[in-house]
Protein backbone atom coordinates (compact mmCIF):
# COMPACT_ATOMS: atom_id res chain seq x y z
CA UNK A 1 0.00 0.00 0.00
CA UNK A 2 2.83 2.31 1.05
CA UNK A 3 4.80 1.43 -2.13
CA UNK A 4 1.75 2.16 -4.32
CA UNK A 5 1.41 5.54 -2.63
CA UNK A 6 5.11 6.30 -3.15
CA UNK A 7 4.81 5.24 -6.85
CA UNK A 8 1.82 7.59 -7.23
CA UNK A 9 3.80 10.44 -5.65
CA UNK A 10 6.75 9.86 -7.99
CA UNK A 11 4.39 9.52 -11.00
CA UNK A 12 2.70 12.85 -10.16
CA UNK A 13 6.06 14.58 -9.70
CA UNK A 14 7.23 13.37 -13.15
CA UNK A 15 3.84 13.90 -14.88
CA UNK A 16 1.93 16.69 -13.04
CA UNK A 17 -0.70 16.86 -15.84
CA UNK A 18 -2.04 13.52 -14.42
CA UNK A 19 -3.35 15.41 -11.39
CA UNK A 20 -6.35 16.77 -13.28
CA UNK A 21 -7.81 13.43 -14.51
CA UNK A 22 -7.18 11.83 -11.10
CA UNK A 23 -9.00 14.62 -9.24
CA UNK A 24 -11.83 14.48 -11.77
CA UNK A 25 -12.14 10.72 -11.31
CA UNK A 26 -12.24 11.11 -7.50
CA UNK A 27 -14.85 13.86 -7.75
CA UNK A 28 -17.03 11.79 -10.16
CA UNK A 29 -16.79 8.79 -7.83
CA UNK A 30 -17.72 10.94 -4.80
CA UNK A 31 -20.60 12.60 -6.67
CA UNK A 32 -21.88 9.19 -7.84
CA UNK A 33 -21.90 7.93 -4.22
CA UNK A 34 -23.63 11.07 -2.93
CA UNK A 35 -26.15 11.17 -5.78
CA UNK A 36 -27.49 7.86 -4.57
CA UNK A 37 -28.99 9.96 -1.78
CA UNK A 38 -31.06 12.72 -3.34
CA UNK A 39 -31.31 15.05 -0.32
CA UNK A 40 -28.24 16.97 -1.55
CA UNK A 41 -30.05 17.63 -4.86
CA UNK A 42 -33.31 18.83 -3.32
CA UNK A 43 -34.43 22.43 -3.82
CA UNK A 44 -32.98 24.81 -1.24
CA UNK A 45 -34.26 28.29 -0.31
CA UNK A 46 -32.02 31.24 -1.27
CA UNK A 47 -30.18 33.42 1.22
CA UNK A 48 -28.52 31.03 3.69
CA UNK A 49 -26.11 32.78 6.04
CA UNK A 50 -22.71 31.07 6.14
CA UNK A 51 -22.81 30.92 9.95
CA UNK A 52 -26.46 30.23 10.73
CA UNK A 53 -27.50 28.58 7.45
CA UNK A 54 -31.27 28.96 7.19
CA UNK A 55 -31.78 28.36 10.90
CA UNK A 56 -31.33 32.07 11.64
CA UNK A 57 -34.39 32.78 9.47
CA UNK A 58 -36.34 30.08 11.26
CA UNK A 59 -35.85 31.62 14.72
CA UNK A 60 -36.21 35.23 13.46
CA UNK A 61 -39.67 34.64 11.95
CA UNK A 62 -42.95 33.84 13.68
CA UNK A 63 -42.97 30.08 14.43
CA UNK A 64 -43.76 28.03 11.37
CA UNK A 65 -44.14 30.95 8.93
CA UNK A 66 -40.89 30.63 7.03
CA UNK A 67 -41.26 26.87 6.46
CA UNK A 68 -44.66 27.59 4.92
CA UNK A 69 -43.28 30.31 2.66
CA UNK A 70 -40.47 28.01 1.50
CA UNK A 71 -42.97 25.18 0.87
CA UNK A 72 -45.09 27.56 -1.24
CA UNK A 73 -42.06 28.35 -3.39
CA UNK A 74 -40.18 25.03 -3.42
CA UNK A 75 -42.85 22.36 -2.87
CA UNK A 76 -43.58 20.02 0.02
CA UNK A 77 -40.09 18.52 0.21
CA UNK A 78 -36.91 20.58 0.35
CA UNK A 79 -33.72 21.00 2.33
CA UNK A 80 -32.31 23.82 4.41
CA UNK A 81 -28.74 24.65 5.41
CA UNK A 82 -28.13 23.97 9.09
CA UNK A 83 -26.27 26.38 11.38
CA UNK A 84 -22.50 26.16 11.89
CA UNK A 85 -21.93 23.88 8.90
CA UNK A 86 -23.90 20.91 10.19
CA UNK A 87 -25.36 18.58 7.54
CA UNK A 88 -28.35 19.93 5.56
CA UNK A 89 -31.75 19.23 7.11
CA UNK A 90 -34.52 17.59 5.08
CA UNK A 91 -37.79 19.49 5.59
CA UNK A 92 -40.77 17.25 4.98
CA UNK A 93 -44.33 18.56 4.59
CA UNK A 94 -45.36 15.76 2.24
CA UNK A 95 -48.17 13.71 3.86
CA UNK A 96 -47.04 10.40 2.29
CA UNK A 97 -43.45 10.96 3.45
CA UNK A 98 -44.51 11.96 6.97
CA UNK A 99 -46.89 9.00 7.26
CA UNK A 100 -44.08 6.67 6.11
CA UNK A 101 -41.77 7.88 8.89
CA UNK A 102 -44.32 8.05 11.70
CA UNK A 103 -46.41 5.00 10.88
CA UNK A 104 -44.21 2.51 9.00
CA UNK A 105 -40.58 3.19 9.90
CA UNK A 106 -41.01 4.83 13.27
CA UNK A 107 -38.32 2.69 14.93
CA UNK A 108 -35.75 3.49 12.19
CA UNK A 109 -36.09 7.23 12.78
CA UNK A 110 -35.03 8.28 16.28
CA UNK A 111 -35.48 11.62 18.01
CA UNK A 112 -32.54 13.67 16.73
CA UNK A 113 -29.31 14.41 18.64
CA UNK A 114 -30.74 17.84 19.48
CA UNK A 115 -34.15 16.62 20.60
CA UNK A 116 -33.41 13.45 22.58
CA UNK A 117 -31.09 15.01 25.18
CA UNK A 118 -33.67 17.79 25.58
CA UNK A 119 -36.43 15.24 26.26
CA UNK A 120 -34.16 13.58 28.83
CA UNK A 121 -33.58 16.92 30.56
CA UNK A 122 -37.20 18.06 30.41
CA UNK A 123 -39.07 14.88 31.24
CA UNK A 124 -36.61 12.21 32.32
CA UNK A 125 -35.59 8.98 30.59
CA UNK A 126 -39.11 7.57 30.35
CA UNK A 127 -41.56 6.79 27.56
CA UNK A 128 -40.97 9.99 25.58
CA UNK A 129 -37.19 9.44 25.58
CA UNK A 130 -36.80 5.71 24.98
CA UNK A 131 -35.68 4.43 21.54
CA UNK A 132 -35.80 0.97 19.98
CA UNK A 133 -38.85 -1.17 19.28
CA UNK A 134 -38.49 -3.66 22.14
CA UNK A 135 -37.98 -1.14 24.97
CA UNK A 136 -40.54 1.30 23.61
CA UNK A 137 -43.21 -1.38 23.26
CA UNK A 138 -42.47 -2.66 26.75
CA UNK A 139 -43.00 0.79 28.30
CA UNK A 140 -46.03 1.56 26.18
CA UNK A 141 -47.62 -1.79 27.10
CA UNK A 142 -47.08 -1.09 30.80
CA UNK A 143 -48.65 2.37 30.67
CA UNK A 144 -51.41 2.15 28.01
CA UNK A 145 -54.11 0.49 30.15
CA UNK A 146 -54.05 3.45 32.56
CA UNK A 147 -55.03 5.80 29.70
CA UNK A 148 -57.43 3.49 27.85
CA UNK A 149 -60.93 4.37 26.70
CA UNK A 150 -62.47 2.36 29.55
CA UNK A 151 -60.22 3.89 32.17
CA UNK A 152 -61.02 7.36 30.89
CA UNK A 153 -64.70 6.80 31.68
CA UNK A 154 -63.76 5.85 35.23
CA UNK A 155 -61.52 8.90 35.60
CA UNK A 156 -64.16 11.28 34.39
CA UNK A 157 -65.54 12.24 37.79
CA UNK A 158 -62.00 12.82 39.13
CA UNK A 159 -61.27 15.08 36.16
CA UNK A 160 -64.39 17.11 37.03
CA UNK A 161 -63.55 17.40 40.73
CA UNK A 162 -59.98 18.51 40.00
CA UNK A 163 -61.09 21.02 37.35
CA UNK A 164 -63.68 22.43 39.72
CA UNK A 165 -61.06 23.01 42.46
CA UNK A 166 -59.29 25.46 40.15
CA UNK A 167 -62.39 27.03 38.64
CA UNK A 168 -63.92 27.75 42.06
CA UNK A 169 -60.72 29.51 43.19
CA UNK A 170 -60.64 31.43 39.94
CA UNK A 171 -64.27 32.50 40.31
CA UNK A 172 -63.42 34.09 43.67
CA UNK A 173 -60.48 35.93 42.15
CA UNK A 174 -62.59 37.35 39.31
CA UNK A 175 -65.31 38.31 41.77
CA UNK A 176 -62.77 40.07 44.04
CA UNK A 177 -61.45 42.05 41.07
CA UNK A 178 -64.82 43.72 40.56
CA UNK A 179 -65.63 41.42 37.74
CA UNK A 180 -62.97 42.75 35.34
CA UNK A 181 -59.88 40.68 35.83
CA UNK A 182 -56.80 40.79 33.60
CA UNK A 183 -55.48 37.24 33.47
CA UNK A 184 -52.49 35.38 32.09
CA UNK A 185 -54.32 32.31 30.80
CA UNK A 186 -51.29 30.04 31.27
CA UNK A 187 -51.58 30.58 35.05
CA UNK A 188 -55.13 29.24 35.20
CA UNK A 189 -54.83 26.44 32.65
CA UNK A 190 -51.50 25.35 34.17
CA UNK A 191 -53.04 24.95 37.62
CA UNK A 192 -56.03 23.06 36.21
CA UNK A 193 -54.12 20.50 34.13
CA UNK A 194 -51.56 19.90 36.91
CA UNK A 195 -54.32 19.27 39.44
CA UNK A 196 -56.01 16.85 37.03
CA UNK A 197 -52.91 14.78 36.17
CA UNK A 198 -52.03 14.63 39.89
CA UNK A 199 -55.44 13.30 40.85
CA UNK A 200 -56.18 10.87 37.99
CA UNK A 201 -52.72 9.40 37.42
CA UNK A 202 -50.90 9.76 40.76
CA UNK A 203 -53.61 9.81 43.46
CA UNK A 204 -52.14 13.14 44.54
CA UNK A 205 -53.83 16.40 45.47
CA UNK A 206 -52.08 19.46 44.04
CA UNK A 207 -54.79 21.55 45.79
CA UNK A 208 -56.01 23.36 42.70
CA UNK A 209 -52.43 24.30 41.81
CA UNK A 210 -51.95 26.12 45.15
CA UNK A 211 -49.94 23.50 47.09
CA UNK A 212 -46.25 24.21 47.63
CA UNK A 213 -45.26 21.41 45.22
CA UNK A 214 -47.59 22.72 42.56
CA UNK A 215 -46.27 26.26 42.84
CA UNK A 216 -42.68 25.06 42.58
CA UNK A 217 -43.39 22.89 39.52
CA UNK A 218 -45.33 25.62 37.70
CA UNK A 219 -42.68 28.23 38.46
CA UNK A 220 -39.93 25.86 37.29
CA UNK A 221 -41.71 25.37 33.96
CA UNK A 222 -42.05 29.13 33.58
CA UNK A 223 -38.33 29.59 34.17
CA UNK A 224 -37.52 26.59 31.94
CA UNK A 225 -39.13 28.06 28.82
CA UNK A 226 -38.00 31.65 29.40
CA UNK A 227 -34.62 31.41 27.54
CA UNK A 228 -36.63 31.06 24.29
CA UNK A 229 -36.85 34.85 23.96
CA UNK A 230 -33.14 35.55 24.48
CA UNK A 231 -31.00 35.75 21.31
CA UNK A 232 -27.98 34.35 23.16
CA UNK A 233 -29.95 31.22 24.09
CA UNK A 234 -31.20 30.80 20.53
CA UNK A 235 -27.63 30.79 19.20
CA UNK A 236 -26.73 28.25 21.86
CA UNK A 237 -29.64 26.01 20.81
CA UNK A 238 -28.40 26.24 17.19
CA UNK A 239 -24.90 25.24 18.25
CA UNK A 240 -26.28 21.99 19.68
CA UNK A 241 -26.85 20.49 16.23
CA UNK A 242 -23.16 20.88 15.32
CA UNK A 243 -21.71 20.30 18.80
CA UNK A 244 -24.00 17.90 20.71
CA UNK A 245 -21.30 17.63 23.40
CA UNK A 246 -22.64 20.97 24.71
CA UNK A 247 -25.57 18.95 26.07
CA UNK A 248 -23.25 17.60 28.74
CA UNK A 249 -21.91 20.97 29.89
CA UNK A 250 -23.39 23.03 32.76
CA UNK A 251 -24.97 25.69 30.52
CA UNK A 252 -27.71 27.66 32.35
CA UNK A 253 -30.12 27.90 29.35
CA UNK A 254 -30.06 24.10 29.13
CA UNK A 255 -30.04 23.39 32.84
CA UNK A 256 -33.21 25.38 33.51
CA UNK A 257 -35.06 23.07 31.10
CA UNK A 258 -34.64 20.30 33.67
CA UNK A 259 -35.75 22.26 36.75
CA UNK A 260 -39.32 20.94 36.91
CA UNK A 261 -38.15 17.34 36.42
CA UNK A 262 -35.60 17.72 39.23
CA UNK A 263 -38.19 19.22 41.57
CA UNK A 264 -40.61 16.38 40.86
CA UNK A 265 -38.06 13.58 41.13
CA UNK A 266 -36.49 14.88 44.33
CA UNK A 267 -39.73 15.93 45.99
CA UNK A 268 -43.30 15.04 45.21
CA UNK A 269 -42.45 11.71 43.49
CA UNK A 270 -41.01 10.39 46.80
CA UNK A 271 -44.17 11.35 48.62
CA UNK A 272 -46.41 9.77 45.96
CA UNK A 273 -44.45 6.51 46.17
CA UNK A 274 -44.28 6.46 50.00
CA UNK A 275 -48.00 7.12 50.44
CA UNK A 276 -49.01 4.39 48.02
CA UNK A 277 -46.53 1.67 48.89
CA UNK A 278 -49.24 -0.57 50.31
CA UNK A 279 -50.84 -0.79 46.86
CA UNK A 280 -48.34 -3.45 45.87
CA UNK A 281 -49.08 -5.86 48.73
CA UNK A 282 -50.60 -8.95 47.07
CA UNK A 283 -52.86 -7.16 44.63
CA UNK A 284 -54.08 -8.25 41.26
CA UNK A 285 -52.45 -5.75 38.85
CA UNK A 286 -55.63 -5.69 36.78
CA UNK A 287 -57.62 -4.25 39.67
CA UNK A 288 -55.35 -1.19 39.88
CA UNK A 289 -55.36 0.57 36.57
CA UNK A 290 -54.25 4.06 37.59
CA UNK A 291 -50.77 4.93 36.32
CA UNK A 292 -49.01 5.17 39.70
CA UNK A 293 -50.29 1.78 40.88
CA UNK A 294 -49.27 0.10 37.63
CA UNK A 295 -45.78 1.58 37.95
CA UNK A 296 -45.46 0.59 41.64
CA UNK A 297 -46.62 -2.97 40.99
CA UNK A 298 -44.18 -3.35 38.07
CA UNK A 299 -41.40 -1.93 40.24
CA UNK A 300 -42.02 -4.29 43.14
CA UNK A 301 -42.13 -7.23 40.70
CA UNK A 302 -38.68 -6.19 39.42
CA UNK A 303 -40.03 -5.35 35.96
CA UNK A 304 -38.85 -1.74 36.06
CA UNK A 305 -35.88 -0.11 37.80
CA UNK A 306 -36.16 2.61 40.46
CA UNK A 307 -34.66 5.05 37.95
CA UNK A 308 -37.41 4.24 35.46
CA UNK A 309 -40.11 4.57 38.13
CA UNK A 310 -39.02 8.15 38.85
CA UNK A 311 -38.51 8.94 35.15
CA UNK A 312 -42.04 7.83 34.25
CA UNK A 313 -43.52 9.86 37.12
CA UNK A 314 -41.77 13.08 36.00
CA UNK A 315 -42.54 12.31 32.33
CA UNK A 316 -46.27 12.03 32.96
CA UNK A 317 -46.62 14.94 35.37
CA UNK A 318 -44.89 17.24 32.88
CA UNK A 319 -46.44 15.93 29.63
CA UNK A 320 -49.86 15.73 31.29
CA UNK A 321 -49.54 19.38 32.26
CA UNK A 322 -47.52 21.13 29.56
CA UNK A 323 -49.19 20.64 26.17
CA UNK A 324 -52.77 20.73 27.47
CA UNK A 325 -51.96 23.95 29.38
CA UNK A 326 -50.76 25.59 26.18
CA UNK A 327 -53.53 24.33 23.88
CA UNK A 328 -56.30 25.23 26.31
CA UNK A 329 -54.89 28.73 26.81
CA UNK A 330 -54.58 29.34 23.04
CA UNK A 331 -58.14 28.08 22.60
CA UNK A 332 -59.59 30.50 25.19
CA UNK A 333 -57.48 33.34 23.77
CA UNK A 334 -58.96 32.71 20.31
CA UNK A 335 -62.46 32.60 21.83
CA UNK A 336 -61.78 36.02 23.38
CA UNK A 337 -60.73 37.32 19.95
CA UNK A 338 -63.80 35.75 18.29
CA UNK A 339 -66.83 36.61 20.49
CA UNK A 340 -69.22 35.14 17.88
CA UNK A 341 -67.51 31.74 18.15
CA UNK A 342 -67.53 32.03 21.96
CA UNK A 343 -71.28 32.74 21.97
CA UNK A 344 -72.06 29.91 19.58
CA UNK A 345 -70.07 27.50 21.76
CA UNK A 346 -71.78 28.73 24.94
CA UNK A 347 -75.15 28.26 23.27
CA UNK A 348 -74.40 24.67 22.29
CA UNK A 349 -73.23 23.83 25.82
CA UNK A 350 -76.22 25.56 27.44
CA UNK A 351 -78.65 23.67 25.23
CA UNK A 352 -77.21 20.32 26.29
CA UNK A 353 -79.52 18.60 28.78
CA UNK A 354 -77.65 17.96 32.06
CA UNK A 355 -73.90 17.50 32.33
CA UNK A 356 -72.20 15.88 29.31
CA UNK A 357 -70.40 12.62 30.15
CA UNK A 358 -67.38 11.08 28.42
CA UNK A 359 -69.43 9.57 25.57
CA UNK A 360 -71.43 12.78 25.10
CA UNK A 361 -68.18 14.69 24.71
CA UNK A 362 -67.19 12.28 21.90
CA UNK A 363 -70.32 12.57 19.81
CA UNK A 364 -72.96 15.00 21.00
CA UNK A 365 -71.22 18.37 21.10
CA UNK A 366 -70.06 18.96 17.51
CA UNK A 367 -69.23 22.66 17.87
CA UNK A 368 -67.10 22.06 20.97
CA UNK A 369 -65.29 19.37 19.00
CA UNK A 370 -64.79 21.76 16.06
CA UNK A 371 -63.35 24.46 18.36
CA UNK A 372 -60.97 21.88 19.81
CA UNK A 373 -59.81 20.72 16.36
CA UNK A 374 -59.34 24.25 15.11
CA UNK A 375 -57.27 25.18 18.18
CA UNK A 376 -55.08 22.08 17.87
CA UNK A 377 -54.65 22.79 14.16
CA UNK A 378 -53.45 26.37 14.68
CA UNK A 379 -51.59 25.77 17.94
CA UNK A 380 -50.22 22.22 18.06
CA UNK A 381 -48.51 21.89 21.46
CA UNK A 382 -45.42 20.52 19.71
CA UNK A 383 -44.80 22.76 16.67
CA UNK A 384 -41.93 20.79 15.09
CA UNK A 385 -40.81 17.19 15.18
CA UNK A 386 -37.25 16.27 14.40
CA UNK A 387 -36.02 12.75 13.67
CA UNK A 388 -32.76 11.25 12.45
CA UNK A 389 -32.53 8.24 10.12
CA UNK A 390 -30.61 5.36 11.70
CA UNK A 391 -30.69 3.22 8.53
CA UNK A 392 -30.75 3.65 4.76
CA UNK A 393 -34.30 4.20 3.61
CA UNK A 394 -36.42 5.37 0.69
CA UNK A 395 -39.13 7.89 1.58
CA UNK A 396 -42.18 7.83 -0.74
CA UNK A 397 -43.62 11.23 -1.71
CA UNK A 398 -47.15 12.13 -2.68
CA UNK A 399 -46.02 15.28 -4.49
CA UNK A 400 -43.02 14.56 -6.78
CA UNK A 401 -40.02 16.85 -6.39
CA UNK A 402 -37.61 18.20 -9.04
CA UNK A 403 -33.95 17.63 -8.19
CA UNK A 404 -31.10 19.95 -9.19
CA UNK A 405 -30.18 17.59 -12.08
CA UNK A 406 -33.67 18.11 -13.55
CA UNK A 407 -34.92 14.65 -12.59
CA UNK A 408 -38.43 14.51 -11.09
CA UNK A 409 -38.70 11.87 -8.36
CA UNK A 410 -41.41 10.58 -6.08
CA UNK A 411 -39.07 8.52 -3.92
CA UNK A 412 -36.24 9.94 -1.85
CA UNK A 413 -33.28 7.73 -0.88
CA UNK A 414 -32.03 8.62 2.61
CA UNK A 415 -28.69 7.83 4.23
CA UNK A 416 -28.15 7.13 7.94
CA UNK A 417 -27.62 10.32 9.96
CA UNK A 418 -30.01 12.37 7.82
CA UNK A 419 -32.03 14.77 10.01
CA UNK A 420 -35.68 15.13 9.00
CA UNK A 421 -37.72 18.06 10.26
CA UNK A 422 -41.52 17.83 10.20
CA UNK A 423 -42.92 21.34 10.71
CA UNK A 424 -46.34 20.39 12.12
CA UNK A 425 -47.31 23.99 12.78
CA UNK A 426 -46.54 25.05 9.19
CA UNK A 427 -48.19 22.04 7.61
CA UNK A 428 -51.39 22.56 9.61
CA UNK A 429 -51.64 26.19 8.47
CA UNK A 430 -50.93 25.70 4.77
CA UNK A 431 -53.44 27.37 2.45
CA UNK A 432 -53.03 24.49 -0.01
CA UNK A 433 -54.49 22.17 2.63
CA UNK A 434 -56.84 24.47 4.61
CA UNK A 435 -57.57 27.31 2.12
CA UNK A 436 -57.43 30.11 4.71
CA UNK A 437 -54.85 28.34 6.85
CA UNK A 438 -54.07 31.21 9.26
CA UNK A 439 -57.71 31.92 10.13
CA UNK A 440 -59.39 30.61 13.29
CA UNK A 441 -62.60 29.19 11.80
CA UNK A 442 -64.04 26.15 13.65
CA UNK A 443 -66.86 25.92 11.08
CA UNK A 444 -64.41 24.39 8.58
CA UNK A 445 -64.68 21.12 10.53
CA UNK A 446 -68.47 21.08 10.14
CA UNK A 447 -68.99 22.27 6.56
CA UNK A 448 -66.80 19.63 4.91
CA UNK A 449 -64.24 22.13 3.62
CA UNK A 450 -61.19 20.38 5.10
CA UNK A 451 -59.09 18.84 2.31
CA UNK A 452 -59.38 15.05 2.47
CA UNK A 453 -55.72 14.64 1.49
CA UNK A 454 -54.89 15.10 5.17
CA UNK A 455 -56.53 11.71 5.71
CA UNK A 456 -53.17 10.13 5.06
CA UNK A 457 -52.66 10.62 8.79
CA UNK A 458 -54.47 8.11 10.94
CA UNK A 459 -54.13 10.23 14.10
CA UNK A 460 -56.79 12.37 15.77
CA UNK A 461 -58.59 14.69 13.29
CA UNK A 462 -56.24 13.41 10.53
CA UNK A 463 -53.80 15.96 11.89
CA UNK A 464 -50.38 15.76 13.49
CA UNK A 465 -51.19 17.61 16.70
CA UNK A 466 -50.94 14.33 18.62
CA UNK A 467 -48.47 12.86 16.10
CA UNK A 468 -49.28 9.59 14.37
CA UNK A 469 -48.46 5.86 14.44
CA UNK A 470 -46.99 3.73 17.24
CA UNK A 471 -45.36 6.75 18.95
CA UNK A 472 -48.37 9.01 18.83
CA UNK A 473 -49.43 10.80 22.00
CA UNK A 474 -50.40 8.21 24.60
CA UNK A 475 -52.29 10.91 26.53
CA UNK A 476 -54.57 12.01 23.65
CA UNK A 477 -57.79 10.85 25.36
CA UNK A 478 -56.94 12.44 28.69
CA UNK A 479 -55.72 15.63 27.00
CA UNK A 480 -58.97 16.01 25.07
CA UNK A 481 -61.21 15.05 27.98
CA UNK A 482 -59.60 17.47 30.41
CA UNK A 483 -59.68 20.34 27.93
CA UNK A 484 -63.36 19.72 27.14
CA UNK A 485 -64.34 19.50 30.82
CA UNK A 486 -62.43 22.65 31.81
CA UNK A 487 -63.73 24.62 28.84
CA UNK A 488 -67.32 23.55 29.48
CA UNK A 489 -67.18 24.83 33.09
CA UNK A 490 -65.42 28.02 32.04
CA UNK A 491 -68.00 28.83 29.35
CA UNK A 492 -70.72 28.40 31.95
CA UNK A 493 -69.18 30.93 34.38
CA UNK A 494 -67.05 33.42 32.48
CA UNK A 495 -66.93 35.63 29.42
CA UNK A 496 -63.46 36.10 27.92
CA UNK A 497 -62.61 39.43 26.31
CA UNK A 498 -59.70 40.37 24.04
CA UNK A 499 -57.14 42.77 25.58
CA UNK A 500 -55.72 43.67 22.11
CA UNK A 501 -52.20 43.38 23.46
CA UNK A 502 -49.45 42.52 20.98
CA UNK A 503 -48.66 38.84 21.50
CA UNK A 504 -45.58 37.20 19.96
CA UNK A 505 -44.92 33.50 19.70
CA UNK A 506 -41.75 31.51 20.29
CA UNK A 507 -40.85 27.88 20.46
CA UNK A 508 -39.32 26.35 23.54
CA UNK A 509 -39.95 22.70 22.63
CA UNK A 510 -43.66 23.60 23.01
CA UNK A 511 -45.34 26.67 21.52
CA UNK A 512 -45.12 29.66 23.89
CA UNK A 513 -46.45 33.23 23.87
CA UNK A 514 -45.18 36.54 25.24
CA UNK A 515 -46.73 40.00 25.43
CA UNK A 516 -44.39 41.99 23.18
CA UNK A 517 -43.89 44.99 25.50
CA UNK A 518 -44.01 42.99 28.75
CA UNK A 519 -41.24 40.39 28.45
CA UNK A 520 -40.72 40.57 32.22
CA UNK A 521 -44.00 38.65 32.65
CA UNK A 522 -42.46 35.59 31.02
CA UNK A 523 -44.73 33.34 28.95
CA UNK A 524 -48.10 35.07 28.92
CA UNK A 525 -51.38 34.96 27.04
CA UNK A 526 -53.61 37.77 28.32
CA UNK A 527 -57.41 38.11 28.37
CA UNK A 528 -59.92 40.02 30.44
CA UNK A 529 -62.42 37.88 32.31
CA UNK A 530 -65.96 38.77 33.35
CA UNK A 531 -68.34 36.70 35.46
CA UNK A 532 -71.56 35.78 33.68
C1 LIG B 1 -53.25 18.95 24.07
C2 LIG B 1 -52.61 17.99 24.64
C3 LIG B 1 -51.46 17.22 24.07
C4 LIG B 1 -50.78 17.36 22.88
C5 LIG B 1 -51.03 18.40 21.79
C6 LIG B 1 -49.76 16.34 22.83
C7 LIG B 1 -48.90 16.14 21.76
C8 LIG B 1 -48.00 15.10 21.67
C9 LIG B 1 -47.14 14.83 20.52
C10 LIG B 1 -47.11 15.63 19.23
C11 LIG B 1 -46.39 13.73 20.81
C12 LIG B 1 -45.31 13.09 19.92
C13 LIG B 1 -43.95 13.58 20.35
C14 LIG B 1 -42.79 13.01 19.54
O1 LIG B 1 -42.90 11.93 18.97
O2 LIG B 1 -41.73 13.66 19.51
C15 LIG B 1 -46.74 13.31 22.15
C16 LIG B 1 -46.18 12.23 22.79
C17 LIG B 1 -46.43 11.93 24.12
N1 LIG B 1 -47.40 12.51 24.92
FE1 LIG B 1 -48.69 13.99 24.43
N2 LIG B 1 -49.81 15.62 23.99
C18 LIG B 1 -50.85 16.10 24.76
C19 LIG B 1 -51.26 15.63 25.99
C20 LIG B 1 -50.64 14.64 26.69
C21 LIG B 1 -51.05 14.17 27.99
C22 LIG B 1 -52.28 14.66 28.76
C23 LIG B 1 -50.14 13.21 28.36
C24 LIG B 1 -50.07 12.39 29.62
C25 LIG B 1 -51.10 11.92 30.24
C26 LIG B 1 -49.17 13.07 27.28
C27 LIG B 1 -48.09 12.21 27.27
C28 LIG B 1 -47.29 11.95 26.17
C29 LIG B 1 -46.21 10.96 26.16
C30 LIG B 1 -45.72 10.17 27.34
C31 LIG B 1 -45.69 10.95 24.87
C32 LIG B 1 -44.56 10.05 24.31
C33 LIG B 1 -45.23 8.83 23.66
C34 LIG B 1 -44.28 7.85 23.01
O3 LIG B 1 -43.19 8.25 22.59
O4 LIG B 1 -44.66 6.67 22.91
N3 LIG B 1 -49.51 13.96 26.29
N4 LIG B 1 -47.72 14.15 22.64
- Strands of the largest sheet, in order across it? 1-2-8-5-3
Please give the CATH class: Mainly Alpha
Regions with little confidence, pLDDT below 50 for 5+ residues = none
What's the story with the biggest beta sheet?
5 strands, mixed
Give the number of helices: 21
- What is the percent of helical residues? 40-55%
Question: What gap, in angstroms, lies between the N and C termini?
Answer: 87 Å
Question: Which molecules are bound in this entry?
Answer: protoporphyrin IX containing FE
The structural class is alpha+beta
The chain-level mean pLDDT equals 90
Radius of gyration: 25 Å
CATH H-level homologous superfamily name: Cytochrome P450
CATH fold topology = Cytochrome p450
Form type: globular
The figure for the number of domains is 1
How much beta, percentage-wise? 5-15%
CATH architecture: Orthogonal Bundle
Q: Total strand count, please?
A: 12
Organism: Phanerochaete carnosa (strain HHB-10118-sp) (White-rot fungus)
InterPro entries: Cyt_P450 (IPR001128), Cyt_P450_CS (IPR017972), Cyt_P450_E_grp-I (IPR002401), Cyt_P450_sf (IPR036396), Insect_CytP450_Detox (IPR050476)
GO molecular function, one term: heme binding
Cofactor: heme
Give the key terms.
532 residues, alpha+beta, Cytochrome p450, 3-stranded antiparallel beta sheet, 50% helix, binds protoporphyrin IX containing FE, iron, Cytochrome P450, oxidoreductase activity, acting on paired donors, with incorporation or reduction of molecular oxygen, Cyt_P450
